[in-house]
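Quick review question:
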């Protein structure tokens, strides 16, 4: 006996293929959505991390700027303190200068010289006096230029010979001189100027001589 299938098998197969296609599309869509969601989550996580790093760096930059500002302020304060300290040291040195000058002159003035006046202008000191001979003046200049720690750069300005005394018999010859030198500050450790020594005192004729 011959059996004939009268059911629409072609339509059933098409329906089954369509169902499988829909299932595959759905699975693909679900997989794509899952992958997209995972990728988007990873991207958002990286963005959040980068934003956190940026915020940390921004805070660090702000902190560094504040520290730099504090350092600049501290440097200004240190400079101001140094200026005040220098002013105090200069004032103290200025107070000690006259005492130092007089003590040094006492040590360096040789016998046979009598100082009559002393004038100080800054570091320059000018003295006038009388000497028994030219050699005494030369000795005084040598002491100032070579043996003094605080006085330097002596320079003879003028020297004149003259006679003092009541009459010709009792009169004696003296040498009136004027010289200048420099006073070294207490902070100086070595001479800052060259010593100027004259080749020899130049004498003039005694006053009243022919």
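Suggested answer, residue by residue:
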């Amino acid at each position: 006996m011959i059996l004939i299938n009268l059911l629409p098998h072609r339509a059933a197969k098409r329906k089954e293929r369509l169902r499988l296609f829909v299932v595959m599309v759905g699975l693909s869509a679900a997989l794509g959505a899952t992958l997209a969601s995972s990728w988007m989550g990873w991207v958002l996580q990286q963005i959040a991390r980068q934003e956190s790093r940026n915020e940390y760096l921004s805070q660090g930059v702000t902190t560094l700027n504040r520290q730099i500002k504090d350092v600049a302020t501290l440097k200004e304060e240190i400079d101001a303190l140094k200026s005040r300290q220098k002013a105090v040291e200069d004032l103290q040195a200025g107070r000690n200068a006259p005492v130092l000058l007089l003590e040094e002159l006492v040590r360096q003035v040789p016998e046979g010289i009598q100082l009559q006046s002393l004038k100080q202008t800054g570091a320059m000191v000018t003295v006038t006096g009388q000497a028994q001979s030219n050699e005494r003046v030369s000795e005084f200049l040598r002491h100032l230029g070579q043996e003094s720690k605080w006085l330097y750069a002596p320079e003879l300005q003028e020297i004149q010979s003259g006679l003092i005394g009541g009459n010709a018999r009792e009169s004696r010859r003296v040498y009136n001189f004027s010289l200048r030198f420099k006073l070294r500050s207490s902070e100086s450790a070595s001479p800052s100027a060259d010593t100027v020594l004259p080749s020899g005192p130049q004498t003039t004729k005694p006053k009243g001589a022919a």
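Why it works: The chain has one domain: 45-210. The beta strands are 113-121, 124-131, 151-164, 172-183.
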